[in-house]
Amino acid sequence: MNKMLIACWLSVFSFSSFAATNQNLAIENKVKTDPTFKIGKLSNGLTYYIKKNPNPKDLADFYIIQNVGAILENDDQNGLAHFLEHMAFNGTKNFPGKRLLDYFQSIGVKFGANINAYTAKDETVYYLASVPTTRKTIVDSALLALHDWSSFISLEDKEIDDERGVIREEWRMRSGDGTRLKKAIEQALYQDSKYAIRDVIGDTAVINNFKHQTLKDYYQKWYRPDLQAIVIVGDINPVEVEARISSIFADISKPINPTPRPTFELPDNREPIYYVTADPEAKNCNVRIYHKFTPFPKEKMGSEEYTRYQTTNKIVETLLVNRFDEIQQSLHPDFLSSKIRIGDLVPTKKLFFVGVTTKNNGMAKGFHRMLTELKRIKEFGFTASEIDVVKKNILRSYESSFTERENCKNDAYVISAKNNFLNGDPIVNIEYLYQWHKDNLQSISLDEINKIAATYITNDNNIIVATGPLSQNVSMITVDSLKSIIKEVTASKVEPYKNKLAVPPLMAQKPAKGKIIKETTNSDLGTTEWILSNGIKVVLKPNDLRKDQITFTGFSKGGYSNSLLEDLPSAYYAAGFINSSGIADHSAAELKRILSGAKLSVQPEISEFYQGISGYASPKDAETMFQLINLYIAKPRIDTALCISLINRKKASSENELNSSKTAFADTINQVLFNRSPYRYHENGKMLDKINPVKSFQFYKERFASMKGFTFIFTGNIDKNELKPYIETYIASIPTTNKKDSWKDNGKRLATQNYKVHFASSMSTDKTSIYLAYVNKAKDDLATQIVASAISYDLRMRFLATLREREGGTYSVTVKNSMLSEPISQSFIAIRFDTDPKIADRMLSLLYNEVNNLLKDGVSDENLKRIKESAIKNHKKNLQSPDYWQEVLTTYYMKGKNINKDYEKIVSELTSASIQKAAQDLIGKGQLVEIVMNPKQQ
Asked: Residue 15 has what pLDDT?
């Protein structure tokens, strides 16, 4: 869930899973609950959290959180917690049948993206996101949906039986190597506990055969208000919403003598638990250590001591990540990549996790190196300079989050409420966290940090797991080998970590200034345009959508379309190599130290038809951002030895890709869709062998040799008078020539004829994967983009109703539309789904029938309304997004297309006939690519 919180303070400070305790218990130095939350409990036991957040305007999120999950199932209910989640969308008291989905989709709330749910081992969560709040009746309807999900799911017998097929297909879709390995690992991780036998998706024998009453028994026993909380966050009136909750949920009775919600212990293990397993479709060799430990004391939850503990753990985790990153960036690393995490496992245990991915037959070496570094940390700890860098970055993150506090998204507040309800975590605001870290971060000592780190590097409560491909090319490590390596490293001597202390200035001498020679404005876009003395165009559009960020994009035509075919692999990796090599006279490691404490990112990039540079920075770090822009263009650096090491790591990672049916399917699509063009880059061992870092560097310099035709776009919290000296110094000074670059047409096209490719691939779980693409030439304008999206939306609804809901033949059908502008304008609508091989022909036939029905009959009035409501709602939301405006400006100055002007007018003018006509042109008159992958008969 932390991925959802990157833009807000919760990404930095994540209160993790600790069992709730008596909230009235007196706690020393207790932190104050965020006063902007309205928190209460109804007489029936239902808890509610309400938080006003005007960003985005006129929208809110509605959640119901159930403190129940798969762990509460009986053996004859294995998988039914998840099955019940599905049934919540198949009829409730106030929304019979599919009326819940029908209603909310009619107001622009899309199933999947905005209406969804998930089931885990210990929790189940349902939500309606981005719900319009412009009418009180809509808010009431959203609350009524939560009300029904709480206690009034219909569970009609026919609907239950119809859903069995959907669940089977979800099981089939998720039954790849990752799921199989995860399930196998959990047998060791959760050994001797109920968690080992509850994997959420459940047992297909149970799914296929359970009696209806068995599902109803689970529902009636566990779905009750004392185990539920509702969370409403968004542009709402909290007082009004609280009153409506009291009214709407009043008919739910308080449970009489309810079964206590049990917790399940995960037993300790004094000796390590070892587990080694191989899978025929596994792509990587991995060795991992899982260490279970006791959570922070329950009686001190909500104290400042807890804040300190969490922050110290965050420091330790980041220090470990940095140390292992440094190892894998070395010239001859013993592992390809690493993962480190300190976080949740189950409510009664937390987890310290370190894992490495290694080369084939390199598991012993990688495990040895991992253990050696952990031993070094255990014995000598981290250094003061390492810790100073991490503390700088943490404090800077809180400062930025405090500055951006008015732009915090609903997701962050929802998760804060969820963690409070399920785990007893305190709900605190960024004002408290920023002030606490300003006052206390430096007092967290080197000794304190090293002591906590050492507690995780121990011999007890460890689970050691090795996984890899079941292949003749891979010799799996054995349990005896793992034990032997542990013994060897334990007996070995290690040296203290040697830190690189020098932090030189990023730019020793500023370049001579250029100047701005012309200024104009674009009234349609609200931009200021400058032409610089070296010919570069700069576009400025201030906005206050982010207070602590300036975002930029720079580009010109060209890209790796200018590469010779034999040099394409080198050209493809050129920008990536530069990003990994540092800049000017600074290595990558040195650059990281120089930039510590700064909020910024600058990255050069070379796509097929453009080269450019993009990134962001806090206004405080604006000059550093401009210096990086200048250096990446004027003084790029290549570390050839490091690049060769990166190539070797990629080759090692790709060795087992051919074992995967997913890879075979993706490769076939990639090649067939583009007429098997040699200019469609396809990464494999042969291509990687052709990469020459020297040629990559030369190609990079050629792409940025002339800046004529280059455009920079800056948006965000900018003052043009403050940016002017930076632009004159660092951009107007970049050397350029009179040569204007462009891209080349190498003849690569999307399918120019019909293709039908059926093939078989080895797989552990039988599954047919189907991909269709309708390709045609099309006008590259906003109207075409909008109508193509409307076609995709309609097809998605048709497939949902027929293939999933009526037939139970697939879990989901993905429909995406794309427009390629270069070298010619082509549109394609792609459709993809998985199904049971036994019914694949029928599913494909039904899909084609639905496509033909669209061409023949057009769009229903109901779907037309959904299409318009969804598009307009999303557009209004996008207008409040800084990323959207960056995209609008980039598209306009790159391709001359305004994707914002008249958007809602074009949407409002859509008709069934206009969508039908566009579908007949884009689908009916184009080329069809049909790719079907079946399981190979053993």
From this structure: 38
Instruction: For 684-702, write each residue's pLDDT tens digit.
Output: 778 899 999 999 999 999 9
CB of 394 closer than 8 Å to CB of 315: yes
Q: How many CA atoms lie within 13 A of 509 on its CB side?
A: 2
- Over residues 205-230, mean pLDDT: 98
472 falls in which pLDDT band (50, 70, 90)?
confident
Residue 503's contacts (CB-CB under 8 Å, 6 or more residues apart) are 590, 593, 594
Q: What per-residue confidence (pLDDT) applies to 937?
A: 85
On the question of pLDDT at 396 being above 50, the answer is yes
Contact 360, 655 (CB under 8 A): yes
3-state helix, strand, coil in the chain (%, to 5): 45, 20, 35
Percent of the chain with pLDDT over 70: 97
Cα 38 to Cα 563: distance, rounded to the nearest angstrom: 60
Task: Indicate whether 9 pLDDT > 70.
Answer: no
pLDDT tens sequence across 141-183: 999 999 999 999 999 999 999 999 999 999 999 988 788 999 9
Instruction: Residue 467: name the closest of 458, 459, 476, 475 by CA.
Output: 476
Instruction: Give the DSSP H/E element, type plus range, for residue 276.
Output: strand 273-279
Close Cβ partners of 821 (under 8 Å, ≥ 6 residues apart): 780, 895
Contact 885, 542 (CB under 8 A): no
Q: Can you tell me whether residue 312 is helix, strand or coil?
A: helix
**Residue 538: beta bridge partners?**
530, 712
Indicate if the pLDDT at residue 403 is higher than 80: yes
**DSSP character string of 120-188:** -SS-EEEEEEEEE-SSHHHHHHHHHHHHHHHH-B---HHHHHHHHHHHHHHHHHT-SHHHHHHHHHHHH
Q: How high is the pLDDT of residue 177? A: 79
Q: Which of 562, 570, 706 is nearest to 638 (CA)?
A: 570
Strands (E), 304-348: 337-346
Q: How far is Cα 933 from Cα 635, in angstroms, rounded to an integer?
A: 48
The domains of the chain, with CATH numbers, are: 33-248 (3.30.830.10), 273-491 (3.30.830.10), 528-659+670-723 (3.30.830.10), 755-935 (3.30.830.10)
**Half-sphere exposure (Cβ direction) of 815: Cα atoms closer than 13 Å:** 20
Is residue 53 a contact partner of residue 413, using CB atoms and an 8 Å limit? yes
